[in-house]
Amino acid sequence: xxxxxxxxxxxxxxxxxxxxxxIAHVSPAETPEEARLFIxxxxxxxxxxxxxxxxxxxxxxxxxQWASDDGEPQGTxxxxxxxxxxxxxxxxxxxxxxxxxxxxxxxxGGLARAxxxxxxxxxxxxxxxxxxxxxxxxxxxxxxxxxxxxxxxAEKGFGLGDIEYTDSVSAVLSCPTETTERLKSAVSDITSxxxxxxSETVTKGRYPIK
Length: 210
Hints:
Layout: E1 2-7, E2 11-17, E3 20-28, H1 32-45, E4 51-58, E5 64-67, H2 78-87, E6 93-100, H3 107-126, E7 128-141, H4 146-156, E8 159-165, E9 169-176, H5 180-190, E10 196-208
C-alpha cells in the first residue's frame, strides 16, 4: 500500500550564479525532530557560509511544514524551497541551501529562482521514492537455487538482502504488500516448493522512482 512520496537518500548539489555559490543538502527526515537535527548539523558544518536556508515537510499528510529565510530578504529563500517540496508532492524531507555570497546582488526574484533551482538540483541528486508498506519475507533454501532467486529479484524489482550462508542459504526478499502472494508463488515455483518460509513481517519500504 502506497504511504507517501519522499526522497530516497541524502543528496547534495551545487549551483553557481553571479559568483554566489549555492549548495543544496537534501535528506529524508521521518519527523520534525529528525529534520531539525539534520538542519543543525549542516549549519554547524557550514557555519562560515553567508546563509544556511532551511525548510522541511514531515508527516504522511504533510502536516508539519517549516522554513526560514536565515537573514535573506523575507520570502525570497525559505518559502520558495518549501513551495517546491510541496509542489513535488514530497514529504518527510529536509533541505538546507547553503549560500556563499559572491558580491553581486540577485534581487528578490533572482534570489527566489536561485534557491528554488538549487533545491531542485538537490532533490534530483537525492532521488525520489515511493514509501510503501513492504513485506519482508525470510526464506531458507538450497544453494542450487541462489542464482535463480537472485536473478528473479533483479528482473522483477524485488529486494534481496540479509543473505546468510550455512548448511543452506537464508535471505530476506522484500516487496510491496500488494505483491506478496506473487512473490511467494514465484519462490515456490523456482524452488519446486522446497524453500522454507522462516518469517514474514510488514514494514515501510522505500522504492526508488526511476
